[in-house]
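pasting for the record
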Amino acid sequence: MLWMTSLVNSKNKDTRLTDSESWYQEARSRGYLAGKGDQIKWWKGKGGFIDYTNPDAVKWWRSLQQKVFDYGIDGWKLDGTATLFYTLFGPLPLFYKSTHNGLMTTRTYMDHYYRDEYSHGLTQNPEFVTLARAIDRGFHPEGFAPVEAAPVTWVGDQKHTWESSGKLTREDQQNTDIAMDGIGGIELAMRNIMASARVGYNIIGSDVAGFSGSTIPPRLYIRWAQFSAFCGLFLNGGHGERALWKRSQQELEIIRRFSWLHTELIPYMYSYVVDAHNGGTLLQQPVEGRYHYLFGDNFLVAPIYKDQLMNTVTLPEGKWRYFFDDQELIQGPVTFAREFTLDEYPVYIREGAIVPLDIKRDYTGIGDKNSAGYLTLLIYPDGLNSFTVHHQDKSGSTLVTVEDQPNIITISLGDLHKPHILKINLNVKPEKVELDDRILLDSVDYRFDEKESS
């Protein structure tokens, strides 16, 4: 995936070619730029906006993009420059510019930018995606990108801090790489992710530990990674040292564990992506509680937003278990406070949950290298429940049904069958286990873990 904007620059901040005046003048002389080619100064230089309403401009623009499409790229990271599409009237911004088709508002240009780049990318690669900005602070409360043209989104740019200072520091003022000041921290990211989920964005994330700053506090890095493990997008990029082997052993082990957990959850997340695309449930659903949200229907996440071990958790109606120590059953609705050590995080799983996982390593403790090549189904039996697993290879779907009755649990897999492992939460060892009327052998065909059940 390559980063891009809709600007034709005459001056460039970070590229080897710092002066591209001739390229800019070519576009301007041909009438390919909005606002008759007037330029803006932005965080990557100075330039003018490509005019998406001019067919010749678009043809020229696409011919330039084709050079990298031919390499087989999978997507664009579309940064938020389209929100700077305005005309200055003295010191005041007027939110429109002239285009080939007449005056165009900032909002309309933003829609062109995100929709046109996404739709054209799909003509080059049917698996093409764009990574677009969702909601950043109070800018565009409806979101930067139209929801239908925003398959993956992020909110930015935050600092390596817990909460916003409310004002620019000297470091902020010197850091011209930040698009929108970057004065907020993890709370700002959480607030914007929740706002983005409410307006209908599905896959949302933020720069783990924030985008800007000279150093990343270790506990912040850990907590932000844990939060991001339960977001659709896990995005570990930005300023500061991020090579985990150069940081503390504690950070390495915890962040590695949670980043692998995010990867293991991909079958679960992907199934919700398909469902949401078809008009069903979104992956992240804000609920009661400070930054609380449902991750799918089966997880409740109560993010840690302060540099402290104590956190308040509000569980909705139903029966819940703490995901990282699932022996105790908790009846909701209930609100309580408890401490979470740095290697734990406030995530609760609903009794009755069916969670498909892709496990290849032993970092999370759910499975190990022997799980590779199998679909692991994590099951918490409680009454009658079902989950449709949509397979990422587009081979089809598998309907998993679990019926928990007195003295018997029946698990059925319908439609497409894939090699699978069932990991079932039980308090007592079953008297017998059958597969299609064939009795399975204890410790050969299945295993009951006494330690996990105690």
